[in-house]
Amino acid sequence: MNRALAYEWTRIRTLRSTWWLTGIAVVLGVAISTLFSWAVHHEFSTRGVQVDDLDELGPIVVTQLAASGEIPSVVCFVLAMIGIFAWGHEYRHGMVRASLTALNSRSQLWTAKFLVAGAWVAAVALVTLVLSGLVASLFLHEYVDVFGGRTVAIIGRQVLYGVVLTWIAMAFTSITRSQAFALVSIFLWPFLIETLINVFFRLVPGLRDHTELLRFLPFDAGGRMVGIFDEGQSTFGDPLNALGGFLVFGGVAAVGMAASYLLFRSRDA
Question: Contact at 8 Å (CB) between 215 and 221?
Fold first, then answer.
């Protein structure tokens, strides 16, 4: 297993796409947090706004507004592409045969890919969130303790969300063996398909009485992991709480990874 981990570590850090996506994630994440922090500071300072309770501001600005529940994490979606390329490059360039020849163990190669990619994403996501918080503190220290309250817990949840999202993307790429299809799908499903499903449930008369099922949509549920508004009171209540969101989102990842593993073990390289 150590050889497989070393092999995959060498592979992932020698791909130019890994460093490009890492740089984009960090720069984009910090830039969004900086702009938002500056806008809030400018608004408060020029208008003399006095707000007593700003506990939610820290998590929102550190997560690039993902904690607001309005938008998914931009940083995590960029980092998930690293996971897609972890499998996509193997099949696109026919390198999977060379990898299996070098390691001679499909199980070890599969495991190493998910572990190394997950660890890389977790590290980059954590660095990005911490840097975002430090920059935000420069602008907002007069109004709020950015790393106080629930911010640290939300950072941990966001890192976990990024790893689970990456594993979902990796599993889908491994199953389909199509890097291009996986890249399109990872953005198409949460931003379009789930939106259309929500619209249908609210417009079609026969579905209106079952809108409570929408909370189990994978990416809607995943968003509950980091959302700080309208927090659910029970695991699978309506809405889900953070644990319920993780169980649904993580369950999708577990099913996808199981299918990926079984197919990788049985199919020709």
Answer: yes
